Amino acid sequence: MNITEATKHYRNIFERRTPEQIRTLAHIKRFMERLVADPGFRQALADNPDDPKSVAKRYGIGVDPNEMLPLYHRRYLRYRFTDEEAQWPLAVAWDEYMKDMFRHRDLLRDEGSMEDIHPRFHAWRERQIRRSMSELGGSGPSITHPIVAFELSEGCTVGCWFCGLSAERFRGYFPYTEENASLWQDMLRAVDGMFGSAARTGFCYWATDPCDNPDYDRFIADYYHITGALPQTTTAAPLKDPDLTRRILALFDKYRTVTNRFSVLTVKHLEKIHAAFTPEELMGVELVMQNRESLTAKADAGRARERQAKLRAAGKPDKISELSRDHTTIACVSGFLVNMMKKTVQLVTPVPGSERWPLGYRVFGERHFSTGEEFRQCLESLIDEHMAESLPGSWPARFRQDLRFEPMEGRFKLHSRSTEHTIQNAICGETAGALLAQGNLSVADVIERLVEDGVSVLVVADLLEKLFQAGLIEEPDVGEVPQVIPDRQTASLAV
Ligand code: SF4
């Protein structure tokens, strides 16, 4: 089995450190978890500025906070990521570890590349990545755009008030019977065969919790044997079935391809998780602090978004988390969302939570399947229908709805919530920009208008194609595009 760059890098994070260094990191990690989630811990540190070691000890943390002051102490924060940080060796050790983890996140995004095996899907995903970087604000850089997610249950038993995907009530799980296992393996082989190593970016939950399926570990073990990667597990119910959780962690120890995540719902929940697992056992698990008192932000999607809207409607302050940053979605897949219970597959990509896409992801199309072969055909037909290789002449010519257009001489600017795009084209930039901002013509119409004004068809087509590939053109919904405009289609294809 080939080992990818991402897996090599990930294993190396653990292998190149001594067991003692890993133990130290595990305890720094526990300190950081308390710091982010627990106001009582933060207060205890503030009350004992001269003896943070005894506070840490009380919480079962076996490192001296004095050796990592830049990680948490207001007066020392300015030394973080500077040469002077060397005075606090534990802060340096932690920052180096985090650097390794961020590098791994970027490698995971690269692992979804399909340039050689499926150039059409590759180009579509790259376009979605560029769009996301511009449209998703603070959420953009942290998304790795996995190409597939499988739900192994229907609904979720946890029912978090903030659920960014508004998971529905639990209706049952997909058991690992002989028949289901055979379908599952056929589907994994289809994904692996069609998309190669990009299949390794997939995972097995969405608006579902892995621990709602008691056979979950058997499904992900198959995933490893067929694709070469053990998918990431994110669960808000790690204590629901301790044996299942330990089986998942044992698979991590064996194959070690990506960090798992436990969502922490309350300070009490954190305490129970810390009591059930040692710092060393949780070294491969990121704790995602979702409790109200944590120093984190909620995405503006799903139930968190609904809660804020209700507060606003009642004329109350709409603060639902300690921090607020431009966190627009928790969705991450640019590719296929599959539900094994309903036998559905949707083509999706992250977008900011909105009235139109309240769950923070856009659905381009949906298919139903019942066999592995039908599943493969569904993927192909979604690709055929929605992944245009170049900008179709029949599409409406308009910028993404979130972009603000600013005309300038020989160029124009497009402003998104976090990015300013400058488009330079002395020949037709100004006119093309104005026509797209107007938004009531087709792509072929825009080309025709500019050609009538004496601009070379190649120049116009090149500009429009660049805007399309940059993810700046709004993709139409099915039904929005006229079915047949043969001569116009040809005009676009000809360039
Ligand atoms: S956030 Fe996760 S665990 Fe909580 S309700 Fe949604 S899907 Fe379930």
Please give a structural write-up.
The protein has helices at residues 5-15, 19-37, 39-47, 52-58, 89-111, 119-135, 178-195, 216-227, 242-255, 267-276, 302-313, 372-386, 429-438, 443-452, 457-469, 486-494, and strands at 148-151, 153-154, 172-173, 234-235, 260-264, 285-289, 335-339, 344-350, 361-368, 396-397, 404-408, 411-415, 420-424, 441-442. With 495 residues, the protein is α/β, with parallel strands linked by helices. It folds into 3 domains: 1-111, no CATH class; 119-386, TIM Barrel (Alpha-Beta Barrel), CATH 3.20.20; 396-494, Outer Surface Protein A, domain 3. It has a 4-stranded mixed beta sheet, covered by helices on one side. Strands 4-5-6 form a 3-stranded parallel beta sheet. It has a 3-stranded antiparallel beta sheet with strand order 11-12-13, covered by helices on one side. A hairpin with a 4-residue loop joins β12 and β13. α2 crosses α5 (89-111), α8 packs parallel to α9 (242-255) and α14 packs across α16. The site of iron/sulfur cluster has 11 residues, from loops.
